[in-house]
Amino acid sequence: MPIELRMLQMDQTMTKGKIGKWLVSEGDTVTEGQPLLEIETDKVVHEQESPADGIVAQLCAEEGSNVPVNALLAVIAEPGEKVERVEVNTDTVSEQPKTDKSAKPTTVQQTPKKTVPQTPSQTTDRFKVSPAAQQLADKLNIDLTHVKPSGPGGRILESDIHRYIETRGPSPSISTRLKASPLARRLAKEFGLDLTTIDGSGPEGRVVRDDVLQANKEITTSVYQPEPIIELTGIRKIIADRMTMSLQTNASVTLHTEVDATRLGELRTLFNDELQKSDISITYTDLIVKITAKALQEHPRLNATLIDEGIQIITDINVGVAVALEDGLVVPVIRNANQIGLANISEQVKTLAEKARNNQLTPGELQGGTFTLTNLGNFGVDTFTPIINPPECAILGVGRIVKKPAVHNDEITIRSMMTLSLTFDHRIVDGAPAAHFLQTVSQYINNPYLLLV
Fold first, then answer.
1. Across 289-408, where does the E strand assignment appear?
2. What is the pTM of this model?
């Protein structure tokens, strides 16, 4: 039974397509999946393929004609099959072409075509070559002057290349692996595989579907490396649970401000010059822990927690200092930071940080914090949004110190500027009291000598 090739609808808005070029002629032998013609739409140029193996019994549309969707384009028949020719409109082919009752049945015969030798002086510039044929010829280093064209207007098709290979026989530059089923060729094209590199398991080394699938599987397996998975256990699991709980339960708000830390740096230098003979070295973190504790004394609402009965103001001021570890984060606590000296704070910060990095902290050193300080200035961070460490009320984030132009005493001069980020629970404290606390911290950083009063 003859098989009809009809105009495909390549998108929802397409109603007709224009026949650009026929890539085969009547009487040609075609294989399933072989491009038969080029169709031009208002969006693309598409090659329509043969739906089956067979002989081109009739071409039902001329080049340049506009053909409606689903209209008959060609008839593919089996060798020796009798096919009645249909009437063809030379401009527009109707969807239901009428059969010419007076036309005599045509017997489709598969006859071998004589090989017409090409002269050595021919070049690809003097005849037409389909893109697929050109690509295959380039890949196999085939001289196209020796290939007999069978397409319209003397166009060389991919089937002509395969026919030439079969006629010529295997050679060192042309592998018998080029024998492949239409489905195998289609899959290889989709996967971007070179058929000449695939071993065929079919008759006479023919590449079949399973060969292409196996080759693609081997390439995918060799290229794909599963991403490493870090197990969410231990400290990482605790951090994940607490931070998620914090964001889900707290009404978090973050305030940012920039403060002049020039005098803070001067005071730090003064302290370290006086303490250079001892083992004590004051850091910016030490100074800000002391400043934070002092500010919490003046703003006790930030040193609070929410319980069932309401808001509980905590009398002890225990400042936790976040310490980054290779696989997580811990917050050892400086107890009663408002009552101890700067040297004591510095010693505790260093000792607790060292114990944290050596995994030697005790549960008591991690519990009882009422406010947390996290400093990312050493990592080059200017500003960020810290997450409250529950059940605390707030957390202060400290950015790096950067020298930049600033107005000081009504003059533009270079100052050491620092950014502070305060995240607080709006259920416990409102924006204005939180901003007032941040303002107090900024004042102490701007003029740290007030700590001595």
1. 304-307, 310-313, 319-321, 323-325, 328-330, 333-334, 371-375, 394-408
2. 0.53
